[in-house]
Design brief:
The chain has 16 helices and no strands. By secondary structure, the protein is mostly helical. Helix 10 runs antiparallel to helix 11. The chain is globular, with a radius of gyration of 21 Å.
Length: 457
């Protein structure tokens, strides 16, 4: 019997057990599935456009549909996870994601497909918020940052390896095969989470529902830890916080600058993620080859995120991020001038993906340093929710430009300028010296702030 009054200390201060490592590993797979589900529509886009004969503008709306759902899901379902718990939210999001992917195969028009993509996006957005909280709460202080990094890298890796398989499917079957694959893999994760992921000890301790002590001890036992004898008292500081402070005179400039920078960079980054397969296909290559180029963009993104974490040990966060954002613009502009050569396009897509994802890592790290501890979670939630508008706008804007007669080099330069605007905005940002104990470095990891005790949404 462990007599510690706060069971969170049991997890935070002890060694990582097999049970904790297992949960962290599951979050990596959950995030990888998120990464594939988001990009499934990109892999399928050439086949969709060919079957229904839709314009690039219409396709742009289809490509943006799940991003709308993601924006809503990441903001509101993160709050649901704080109200009903991590485990039921993870399970519910898996059901929504699998259903949306499966229903997409029944679509007979761009409008119907867009509806199912919004549904899928709701599940993905909620999953992104919940997996972040989960990996933070099932890892100890020593390894928390590493666990968060591993979880986040799952996102581009899901797009990379899932993309390889999707490309093989498209070589034999039509675009619906991509969604059948995504629905199947998502559904298979349901029993894994159901049987192997207990409820969060951190959440149970903060909320203290009925029979909280028994539930906490059940989770501790499943994770391989000793049980506790009494419940801790929950201080007022751990109760639900207001988002209003991020609009106070002291923080409103920071809030607006960081949100705008994230918005503009995401506009650039999602141009590569969403339009690469269609651009390659329009050059006369098969859909399977087009998907493979996007796979290289994701592989470059995974490498960029990892490289960013290493680089921050030697360079200042703000100047490093500004430099990376400038390189992103260069990469996207050069990609827009690529000739019809698959090898060269794959290399340039990987280059753009490398700096694009590293830029996202930098921006989310900056968010962690910009907001003081008591509003870090609410501040990052606002930045991500509003900033995802850039992800929604990106494929639509590119579609209008391409349909309006703009050449690919011109579109690449215009879409790449978003990252440069973000870099310029960061010049005016003054970072807060109130640094988080475990500053996350990526989009999904930062949603809940420090990763020590996620605040209520």
């Amino acid at each position: 019997m462990n007599t510690a009054t706060d069971p969170r200390q049991v997890l935070d201060q002890s060694k990582m057990t097999i049970g904790m490592i297992t949960v962290v590993a599951i979050t990596v797979f959950l995030n990888a599935m998120d990464g594939f589900d988001v990009l499934a529509i990109s892999f399928a886009s050439p086949g969709i456009a060919e079957e229904w004969g839709i314009s690039r503008v219409q396709l742009g709306f289809v490509l943006s549909a799940e991003l709308v759902g993601m924006a809503i899901g990441s903001v509101f379902l993160g709050g649901v996870a704080d109200k009903i718990g991590r485990r039921p939210t993870l399970l519910g999001c898996l059901i929504v994601m699998a259903s949306g992917m499966l229903l997409a195969t029944t679509s007979t028009s761009a409008l119907i497909l867009s509806v199912w993509r919004v549904l899928t996006g709701l599940g993905i957005g909620g999953m992104l918020s919940c997996t972040n909280a989960t990996v933070a709460e099932f890892s100890n202080n020593k390894w928390r940052s590493m666990c968060i990094s591993l979880m986040v890298i799952g996102y581009p890796l899901g797009g990379t390896f899932g993309g390889m398989y999707a490309s093989n499917l498209l070589a034999t079957y039509d675009w619906r095969s991509v969604f059948y694959f995504g629905a199947t893999m998502t559904a298979l994760l349901f029993p894994v989470v159901y049987f192997m992921v207990p409820e969060s000890v951190h959440w149970l301790t903060r909320k203290q529902p009925e029979n909280a002590l028994d539930k906490i001890n059940a989770s501790l036992t499943k994770l391989g830890h000793s049980v506790i004898s009494v419940l801790p008292e929950v201080p007022a500081a751990e109760q639900k916080k207001s988002i209003g402070d991020i609009f106070s005179p002291a923080l409103i400039a920071t809030t607006l600058l960081v949100t705008a920078a994230y918005f503009f960079h995401i506009t650039t980054f999602y141009f590569i993620l969403k339009w690469t397969p269609k651009i390659v296909a329009d050059m006369g290559f098969a859909a399977s080859n087009a998907g493979m180029v996007l796979t290289w963009a994701n592989l470059g993104g995974a490498m960029g995120g990892a490289a960013f974490g290493i680089a921050t040990a030697r360079f200042g966060l703000k100047p490093l991020t500004i430099g990376i954002l400038a390189c992103t613009m260069v990469g996207v502009a050069i990609f827009g001038r690529t000739p019809a050569d698959l090898d060269r396009m794959a290399l340039l897509a990987a280059f753009a993906g490398f700096f694009g994802n590293a830029g996202i890592s930098g921006l989310y790290s900056i968010v962690a340093y910009s907001f003081p501890t008591h509003v870090r979670a609410t501040g990052t939630g606002f930045v991500i929710g509003v900033g995802r508008g850039g992800a929604v706008l990106s494929p639509i804007l590119a579609g209008f430009l391409l349909d309006g007669g703009s050449t690919l080099p011109t579109v690449g330069l215009i879409m790449g300028s978003g990252s440069m605007i973000a870099a310029i905005l960061l010049i005016f940002l003054k970072l807060n010296t109130d640094k988080p104990a475990d500053a996350p470095h990526t989009e999904e990891a930062i949603v809940q702030g420090e990763g020590l005790e996620p605040a209520a949404a």
